[in-house]
Structures are given as structure tokens and as C-alpha cells.
Amino acid sequence: MRITDTDSGRVYGTWPLEAAGDAAPEFSIEFIHSVNQSPVREIFAAEGKSIRPVAVRFYSFGAGVLSDLSEGQIMTRDGDAMVISGFTNSFRELSYIVGTVSDHLLYINGETISLRDLCGRNAHIVIRVCP
Question: What is the pLDDT of residues 65-99, one digit of tens each?
Fold first, then answer.
């Protein structure tokens, strides 16, 4: 997986994606929601060169937090958290603007990486799966 600057193409980092058994390798991005001020974790699987959302985990509803389920999606509880899963779409890339007030954290291969430390506040980044 590779993170690059949207405008300059500068590569901030490249990580191998390690699968657990037969499952597709996964990584997550976590941030503090700007309205409800609680953590949101987006979990993704790398499938070939595509990125498929696996689940989103959050603790409170608010503007921009998924609340309407599409066909095939389910919402479950995990302690205090709500978890939505059953996504069927996939993407070639993910785009983020790294937080200025709160950090975005990348969870990959058992590591936690601060995207604010890696890329800088307000960095416009793209995440892609690379062979």
C-alpha cells in the first residue's frame, strides 16, 4: 500500500499488506469525527489493486456519519460501538485530508501510524494498493 500527496505525487510511505490466513489483507483509518467528537474507524480490505470497505465503527451519530443502510448492509453493536458491515463497492484509491485539529491514524500490519506526523496537517493524500 502506498500513500502519496494528491498534488505533488510525493510518496509519504509504502507498506506491505500482510494477510491473516486466507482473508484479504486489511488496514484501517481512524479519526475523531468533527461534529460528534467521537472516534470513527474505517476498515478496508485490499483485493488485488482494489480497496473494499469492510466495516465502519463509530460511537455516535452525527452529520456525515452513515445512518441509512443499503441492501445487504447490517448494523451491529460491539460494546458501546456501532458497526456497519456488508459493503459491496470497491475503490481504486482513497482520498483524505489529514486532520488539522485531530489526527488521522493508519492501522496496518499491527502498527499505528500518525498521518499528521507522516504527512503534515491538512495534507491532501491518496491511498492506493500497489503490487
Answer: 666 777 888 888 998 999 999 999 999 999 999 98
Query: Strand locations in 1-131, DSSP E?
Result: 2-5, 11-14, 26-32, 39-47, 50-58, 74-78, 81-85, 93-97, 104-108, 111-114, 124-128
What is d(CA 119, CA 61) in angstroms, rounded to the nearest whole number?
A: 29
Nearest by Cα to 9 from 122, 124, 121, 131? 124
Using only C-alpha atoms, the chain has a radius of gyration, in whole angstroms, of 15
Q: For residue 47, is it left (φ>0), alpha (ψ between -120 and 50) or beta?
A: beta
DSSP readout, 12-42?
EEE------TTSPPEEEEEEE-TTT--EEEE
CA distance 71 to 60: 22
25 neighbors 36 (Cβ within 8 angstroms) = no
* pTM (2 d.p.): 0.89
Contact 89, 15 (CB under 8 A): no
